[in-house]
Amino acid sequence: MKLRLLLTAVTVGAAAFVLSGCGTEAHRIDTSSNQGLTTVDDINFKDWQIAGEKCVKTMLDSGVLKRKDDRKTVIMISTVKNSTNEHVNTRLLTDRIRLAILRSGQAVTTTAVSGSGPEDNASRQVRELSNDKMFNKSTVVKQGTAIAPDVSLAGEIVQQKTKSGRSYESYFFIHMTLTDLKTGLAVWEDNVEIAKQAKKPWFGW
Amino acid sequence: MFLRYMKIFPPLALLVGVIIFSSGCSTVIDAHQQKSSTTNEFYDNKFDAAARSFGSKADSRSGTGDELMWLLEQGTAEFDAGHSKQSLKAFDRAVYLVNEYDSRATVNVRKIGAEAGSVVTNMNALPYSGSILDRQMLYAYRAFDYLGMEDLSGALVEIRRMRQAHKDSKKVYEEKLDKARSDIETARRQNSKDAAKLQNQQGTDLTFEELLENAKVKSAYQSASTNSNKLYAKLTNPFIAYLSAVGYFLEGNWGEAMVDLRELYRMEPDSPLVQRNYVTTATAIGGSVPMKLTEVRPYRFPLDRKVIYVIFMNGRGPSYKQVKFSLVLPWVSYIGFAFPSGIYSKPRWDNLQLQFKQHGGMNGVKTTRIADVNAVFAQEYHENLPYMITRIAVSTLTKALANAVAVEAARRKGVGYEIAAYFATGFYAYLFNTADTRCWEMLPAEVQAAQLAIPEDRGLSLSSSDFRGVGKLFLRKNGKVIKSAKRLNIKLKNDTNVAFIFARGVPAGVNIQVFEIK
Description:
The complex is a heterodimer.
Chain A: H1 2-20, H2 45-62, E1 73-83, H3 91-104, E2 107-110, H4 122-127, E3 151-164, E4 167-180, E5 185-199, E6 203-204
Parallel strand pairs in A: 1-2, 1-3
Antiparallel strand pairs in A: 3-4, 4-5
Chain B: H1 2-6, H2 9-23, H3 31-43, H4 47-60, H5 67-81, H6 84-102, E1 107-108, H7 109-120, H8 132-148, H9 152-195, H10 208-212, H11 215-227, H12 238-251, H13 254-267, H14 272-285, E2 307-314, E3 319-329, E4 332-343, E5 351-358, E6 361-366, E7 368-372, H15 373-413, H16 415-431, E8 446-453, E9 459-466, E10 469-470, E11 473-477, E12 480-485, E13 488-491, E14 498-506, E15 509-517
Parallel strand pairs in B: 2-14, 11-15
Antiparallel strand pairs in B: 2-8, 3-4, 5-6, 5-9, 7-8, 9-10, 9-13, 11-12, 14-15
């Protein structure tokens, strides 16, 4: 009788331990490690990192940003079209690329103009101050001084989802282009493929 | 003696309580009946009150098998009331539940529990995971929500998800059908075992053909057949094809839009709107136009800029009502069945008329039907009914046979036991003889649409009528009725590139929302 009671207590205790011990406390992870979560339907932060690094490397290696004159190439960040089934913020990719380009010293980016309007409207706003009596006109930035972009960075992200039996996968295709705004020709193109797969468990809660 | 019988009631009541709590109230009171007062509020044009009521139901049913159904109703009422953000919040949870349901392990503890619950109660004990129609329309409504927040890019994501849901429909439908077939077989095996314990085994199995001999079943089956549209193939929905084509227009992808329009033209060949879109797109991509459409003029304005899309959700959507019938079987005097039967309503309003200035004179367009939601619903119901009703019948037989075996065993113990067993099994059969009427009732009866270029002066005059006369229009903005009139004048902003006019027709009038995208 006592043995049965003991066995029951151990079984209930073990079940309680298994059920309650599944969670972990919130903790920071190293963004350069592989500790981040991987989900099939989303582009996770590691995917953005991989895509950004690949694009930056091939763009800088191609030499398209180097100019014959002393001036640095001015890049306009145009639109990265989201053609996926998920709501994604494409700045996670473009900001990474623009920062790496800036650090390379080969080019600078403009914030006065971008695919979805100016990223920083201040360049336009300060020029409008010349009509404002409050400001000393000689200190107001003059018209015609902003530098127009030479090239524009654009792209598209496409997703294809497939299911077969218990397995399901997502394939993301990220295509980036750099267009010479003078000629309209693409001077650099690259793509990054991300494929992720998972299998629905056979048994579970 | 009496006290001894009374001892079984507390645990029995507890068991019944646990089942009702975990599966939602619909195991006892059918969902259509539970929703009726709020649904009536909605169709009385009290969208805010309906949204609040559905929201509080969704909160109180959180975690139960009925939660998804309440969220779908709440999301629609919130959108129609002009609360896009709240609507999206409800639909976010709905998407989470659908995805969570689909990603569950093949064999999972919750499913086993729900299956066990459905065996001892009824189909309402299984979690509501959404019909094919629900799953497609969920993303369409989410796209509307994003448009309501002036986020075209977000709306296009939802349209892509809607296409994916449409693509996955076949798989979801086949899985449901396989499940129904396997449940029927399992129940039949169990019934055969139980029937062997009874002296008279006549009528211990029922086929769909036998059930169809019943007048109520026959009427439900025929009504679904009458209301379905033979041109709509299995699992297709013309509105999904139309919205998908609009999404492609806005992305400038004419080739893909053509694929949707071919499907749409097959389903709605007489719709002038479908015909003109077909011809416009075919002309744009250099494709061929069917002989019947050679006289149809293409649109003379772009479909991706300076354009207005009008979507008119008209009338009271299809739903289920509970129908009960009984059969007299030799081994038990009476056996009651409850099953869902479709209710189809005709929309009150003929169309929405839009008048505008063009080339110095007045011009006008009317919305025309692009999807008969009653027919889509009826088609799915008609396909499902043979499996659904057979499943209900054999599982009801399982319970009746178990009851009969229990009564037989009690009879051998004595008269008192037999009376108690009769009372308990009778109460139990009465309590859980409830049909699964869960569905999305806030959908419209039909969807109409129109397309026009943004007028030179950006002004539009809207009206709607039926055979009784001109109806009242209510302009809603940010959850408030800001204007109401029989002829509603609206003016679009200077920088509007694409405008969506959403209309919701209920008997009291037509509610208008205008979403402008720069």
